[in-house]
């Protein structure tokens, strides 16, 4: 965390979202899932004024995931849910997790990727997330990486107002941010770093280099995320 904060300070980044432990696993066992979340909780200690945590869950273990959700969000310091590649997010097993997260006002970040080689067995696409969003219209969802193939990703989730897109995770290609703002509105676009998979600078470049208004950049760089987090932060008495 000290190293991440040092790099963030160098780039003028005030807050970080932290999830998954020191050694990621695609399909964690319940014990591994708890261990990774414990590592994040430990990392957050002493940095509560600079970082928030998201609990890492595995829909292949629904009951254990619900217990972790209560332990880390309801009774702990975390404010969101991280879902990765263990199971396609349109599967029915996610319904109980999304319902409980929504009751707790937790923000839900779902990794998505259109993979030309087919992806990993449980890897979700924005089309999968669109199905989940339709079943849970009151959930607050983030389409991680805008699906990689962002032109398709933006179209896939465009009609679902409870989904915002995250710009992180791909090269800083010209046009990504502009098209997202045009198709979704600046209020549904969020900057992300994907650190340490990507550099802070390369991902900031997608926003600072975009041909959009300064007010739109302010929304993307922080105001949108703080708005989405406001309900759970207020519930927990955490100052934004």
Description:
- With 240 residues, the protein is α/β, with parallel strands linked by helices.
- It has one domain (57-236): Metal-dependent hydrolases (TIM Barrel, Alpha-Beta Barrel), CATH 3.20.20.140.
- The chain contains nine helices and seven strands, in the order αβαβαβαβαβαβαβαα.
- The chain has helices spanning 2-10, 30-44, 62-74, 94-103, 126-135, 150-157, 176-184, 200-208, 214-236, and strands spanning 16-18, 51-57, 80-83, 107-111, 141-144, 163-166, 189-190.
- A seven-stranded parallel sheet has the order 1-2-3-4-5-6-7, sandwiched between helices.
- Strand 6, helix 7 (176-184) and strand 7 form a beta-alpha-beta unit.
- Helix 5 (126-135) runs parallel beside helix 6 (150-157).
- The longest helix is centred in the last third of the chain and has 23 residues, at 214-236.
- The two termini are 20 Å apart.
- The mean pLDDT is 96.
Beta-strand share of residues:
5-15%
The biggest beta sheet is recorded as: 7 strands, parallel
Q: Write the CATH homologous superfamily.
A: Metal-dependent hydrolases
CATH architecture: Alpha-Beta Barrel
**Total E-strand runs:** 7
Number of self-contained structural domains: 1
Q: What is the CATH topology assignment?
A: TIM Barrel
Shape: globular
Average pLDDT reading = 96
The rounded Rg comes to 17 Å
Question: What is the topology, as strand order, of the major beta sheet?
Answer: 1-2-3-4-5-6-7
Q: How helix-rich are the residues, as a percent range?
A: 40-55%
């Amino acid at each position: 965390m000290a190293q991440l904060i040092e790099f963030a300070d160098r780039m003028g980044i005030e807050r970080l979202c932290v999830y998954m432990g020191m050694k990621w696993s695609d399909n964690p066992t319940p014990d591994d899932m708890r261990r990774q979340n414990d590592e994040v909780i430990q990392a957050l200690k002493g940095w509560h004024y600079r970082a928030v945590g998201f609990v890492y869950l595995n829909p292949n273990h629904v009951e254990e995931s619900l217990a972790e959700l209560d332990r880390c969000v309801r009774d702990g310091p975390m404010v969101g849910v991280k879902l990765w590649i263990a199971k396609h997010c349109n599967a029915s097993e996610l319904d109980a997790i999304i319902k409980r997260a929504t009751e707790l006002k937790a923000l839900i970040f779902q990794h998505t990727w259109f993979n030309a080689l087919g992806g990993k067995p449980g890897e979700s696409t924005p089309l999968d997330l669109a199905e989940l969003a339709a079943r849970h219209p009151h959930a607050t969802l983030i389409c991680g990486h805008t699906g990689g193939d962002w032109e398709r990703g933006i179209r896939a989730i465009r009609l679902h107002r409870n989904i915002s897109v995250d710009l992180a995770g791909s090269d800083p290609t010209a046009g990504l941010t502009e098209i997202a703002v045009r198709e979704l509105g600046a209020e549904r676009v969020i900057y992300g770093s994907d650190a340490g998979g990507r550099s802070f600078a390369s991902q900031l470049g997608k926003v600072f280099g975009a041909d959009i208004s300064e007010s739109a950049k302010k929304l993307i760089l922080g105001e949108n995320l703080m708005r989405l987090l406001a309900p759970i932060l207020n519930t927990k008495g955490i100052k934004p």
